[in-house]
């Protein structure tokens, strides 16, 4: 089982950090392949809680080499502060490898992200304001700055000038902001060069060699399937491909090398930012899920929107990612409900629909069709095996598995590393 992808099956915040950390001890490399510091991955080790944004969660496992792949957008200031934060807590960060082809998020990307959202007003996406969209836009527009450009001042100057050319016109003429000076950006970026030089590597070569040698490589997705720029609820998405194919382009590893794709699936649903969300709750149940589940953004501190489990979305995630397994998280949060509704299909303009509609308007009109499952009241946080779960919790898991189209191979019953029921080994 040399190469596994672990990704979000919903709208992010499914518990990817915990799942990655759990496997980290048996994995040689953990690779971020897309996104940037819009991610907020929580890892709880004993009484220590870590919030990782840009660094792969495997950085907390001593034997594991963390890799930032070419598909990631890197804000150097955030990267360096995250590294020093971990170093202060005694974490060894020296093994980190960063692709020279990864693109940089600069201060003008964060500025453009914020002013664009303000300009959109009611139509805003609700981005994390971290410059993600504008950095990817520059990459696709071929005016991006890559990590390797930091080490060639004259190239860097040319590229920053080219990037600012149009951006300054926009900032000044459309957004009524001050122009950004090339020298200002250059000075800031060059200041990072020496601090980052030692981490930069040909990560595609490193990872392919590792796989060929039988080492275990884990690709850790940020965000989630429904936030994917191609397969998500566009335009209410992030600007990268969290879906499984993104691991190939974002790390330079061919699809024939990937042996397993694990979808992290929360036992209910959450979403941050704007966009459609059929099972969203606006009543006391939604509030209860938010409070018991601690559903507050790790990156922006925003309250997450909460709703019941949506099997249509889970089936869709199985399809577009070719999922081989699910890791069901936060089952413990559902303890105490007498009956738990699960969305099994949608009703769209009077029709029952079993699959996620590809048409945006249909999805906005989708009303959940619920089936109610009996709940349980026993504390499940100490359960170590499936059989130790109350019968109704077992039924809930089995029902979700049948509806979602892939086996549930692990169940989270608490935030800690050990609060996990392993059913089938991932390795
Ligand atoms: P990520 O972005 O997918 O890594 O997820 P986040 O870290 O943003 O949000 C998941 C939250 O749920 C974090 O606070 C985790 O510590 C917590 N968590 C993960 N798995 C479980 C679980 O099985 N039970 C409970 N109660 N909390 C969990
Ligand atoms: P993790 O990895 C949840 C959402 C934002 C917004 C949209 C676009 O912790 O699961 P962006 O800043 O990416 O341009 O914002 O995507 N978003 C996330 N929501 N979890 C995340 O990451 C997210 N990263 C981005 O809220 O709706
Ligand atoms: Mg998160």
Describe the fold and architecture:
By secondary structure, the protein is α/β, with parallel strands linked by helices. It has 2 domains: 3-86 and 203-422, Adenylosuccinate Synthetase, subunit A, domain 3 (Adenylosuccinate Synthetase, Chain A, domain 3); 103-197, Adenylosuccinate Synthetase, subunit A, domain 2. Helices cover 33% and strands 20% of the residues. It contains 12 helices and 20 strands. The chain has helices at residues 16-24, 76-88, 107-120, 132-140, 153-174, 182-197, 203-212, 244-249, 284-292, 311-321, 360-365, 391-404; strands at residues 3-8, 29-32, 41-45, 48-52, 65-68, 73-74, 97-99, 103-104, 200-201, 217-220, 260-266, 269-271, 305-307, 309-310, 325-329, 339-348, 351-353, 367-374, 408-412, 420-422. The strands form 5 sheets. A 10-stranded mixed β-sheet has the order 9-7-5-2-10-1-11-15-19-20, with helices on both faces. Strands 14, 16, 17 and 18 form a 4-stranded mixed β-sheet that branches. Helix 3 (107-120) packs across helix 4 and helix 5 (153-174) crosses helix 6 (182-197). The longest helix has 22 residues, at 153-174. The chain is globular and about 65 Å long. The model has no long low-confidence stretch (mean pLDDT 96). Bound molecules: guanosine-5'-diphosphate, 6-O-phosphoryl inosine monophosphate and magnesium ion.
